[in-house]
Amino acid sequence: MKIYIKIFIICIWLFSCDSKTNKINLPPYPTINKKLVTENICDTTVNDYYRNLENAEDSLVNNWYKQQGDYASNILSKISGKDGLAKSMQDLSNRKSYRVRRTNIVADDQYFFLKKMPNEKKFKLFYKSGYDGKDEFLYDPNTFKPETKHDYVINYIRPSWNGQYVVVALTYEGREVAEMIIIDMKTKKPLAEIIGSSWAASFYGVDWLPDNSGFTYLHFPNLSKNNKRAKTNTQAVLYKIGQNPKNITPIFSPQNNPELNLDITSYPIVEIDNPNQKYAIGYMVNVSNYFDAYYTEIENLDKKKVNWKPLFTKKDKVYKTACEIKNDTITFKSAYGASNYQIAQTRLSSPDFKSPTIIVPENLDEIIGEFKEMPNSLFFTTTKNGVQAKFYQLDKNEIKEIKLPKESGSISLRSYNNIDLFVTIRGWLNKSERYLYSSNDNKFTYLPLSPIINYPEFKDFIAKEIEVINQDGVNIPLSIIHHKDTELNGKNPVFIYGYGAYGDIEKPAFSPIFLTWVANGGVLCIAHVRGGGEKGEAWHLGGMKLNKPNSWGDLITCTEYLVEKKYSSPEHIALWSSSAGGIMAGRAVTDRPDLFKAVIIDAGVLNPIRREQSYGGSNHKEYGSMKDSIECKGVIAMDAYFHIKENVMYPAILLNAGMNDPRVAPWQSGKFGARLQEVNKSDNPILFHVDYDSGHGNGTTVGKVYDQWANIFSFAFWQTGHPDYQLDKSSLK
């Protein structure tokens, strides 16, 4: 890895020269006959030129997807430096003697975690007794259903409160939808039962009963490929150890509780916070940040008919599942009248979520993040602009800031026994560090879960946090990471990322993969656009539904700033986003194709006009519904596929899609790519990289992750003019 410093010096010199990408005569794209469908939607004529691509079961369409994938793979494989880039990413990761993730700590200081050695492609399940205990191997995903020849990986674990059992969820080829097994710690072997139709890694997992006899989880009764109802009529079910998994026991669902009039597109989950909990809370989860909630005594879950009582509604703006019940006191995080959130309390015997007792008031400069109630006080975190984190304690009605071991971009709080408080801090350039905090002596004890590794190749990098003012006077946070000696000459390759959806915050996190861009002489930027949650609920609302144009408008503003300040120029700027961020990236490139040299979109939402009718789910609550006469206008405005124009010089485009994606249908990328390949007037390549062995980016092997990022970065470097990443034209098929 010492070569990175040399590469950086070389790049400073090379990028001070003009480095436009030479014209490349690529082989013709695979073609398919388009089938135009014209509709009048919301008083707008919508031409859908490639509606036929939505039917991947059609052999002609499926063959076209395969041909597009082969075509893109052939081009990407011919970029010099790509294989070396993938290897350097892997080498950085393998610098640790092992990696650990998904750590769970339960009674008697029992640790359950996933661990991977440098030469392994997958994480395996391990156990140890106590922090200093010896790692004991428990389960290898390669042993699950070997007769299927599927490449299974573990994507979720959850031990019982007493550590007697551990649930392990397994999936393959990016499907995310998982099968769950239960390992009995007495025998260290899986029980015979296999629980299917679950999605534990993404839908709040499983919640063990206090007596460890079973757990609740979300059951998907309609799961099958291309089933438009796959995500509807889901059920929260109770599973008891030894039960036949085919004998489903619903405890909370629209079918089981018709008296509650539950929404069939939301997901009923039942949460049990700790083994001493008296009540279970049932949430109707969807993509919004506020749910309807109900409660019942846990002992009622065994009854044939569970009586759920209303707790609060989404109008009360209790943030997600940030709600704890202890005796008669409910402590919760709320956005009701507080865009930056507040922490409040009310009584279960007479709940009032609109006029509760405020124990931590809203801070107009910082948004409240996580909170954790401990025996004698409450701890909570805040962030400013999503990137500057602080840690506080509420003790006897007094709020005091606790100084962290070092400045942090994000903080997470965990307590496994309601006694020990673990504080984990992260930053763009600071590795994740886990501490045990003692409030008695205000002491942080560093307790890493994996070996401490240094990355000297990143030591001269700097991270700047600025705000860019748009034409309406709105301050948009922008994170910029580069080498301290980077010259602002307008020639640096820039990789800019944004998302702007669901109120998610793009929190600082240390990523050796991302930092390889900077190590190769580039500038890495994160635009914290509206639609995210960096500035609270108002920031989210400012970029959703009819306000969605603010998301790509903010991204464009940040990119223009980078050009104005000579970090780069349009000829050297690559834009990347994924999933719902595809709306922002797709509309940025269709609005301002002149501002970017390359745009890469992974599993992007690019044709939301068709999403609600064809893929189900509750995402219309974020984007807007085509069934609403007002909201549909916003959906049309954010549809990148609809806004592709003829006779326009578009930049280079790389669209990545997995055919097993359970969240965003691959035809969203396919239709967008096909239309661009048809009408683009520039010589820039339009690649549609289809992978039949992946999904939405989750549930896959580590090696595939390196390959995917090597494709993205090498394509971006090629297009932005990096001399080490150029196409071998002589070897093109």
From TrEMBL:
Keywords: Hydrolase, Protease, Serine protease
Pfam family, one: Peptidase_S9
InterPro entries attached to this UniProt entry: AB_hydrolase_fold, Pept_S9A_N, Peptidase_S9_cat, Peptidase_S9A, Prolyl_oligopep/macrocyclase
GO terms for biological process, alphabetical: proteolysis
Any GO molecular function: oligopeptidase activity
Residues of the Peptidase S9A N-terminal domain: 33-423
Keyword Transport carried by entry: no
The enzyme's E.C. designation: 3.4.21.26
The protein's enzyme class: hydrolase
Protein name: prolyl oligopeptidase
Source organism of the structure: Kordia algicida OT-1
Source species taxonomy: Bacteria, Pseudomonadati, Bacteroidota, Flavobacteriia, Flavobacteriales
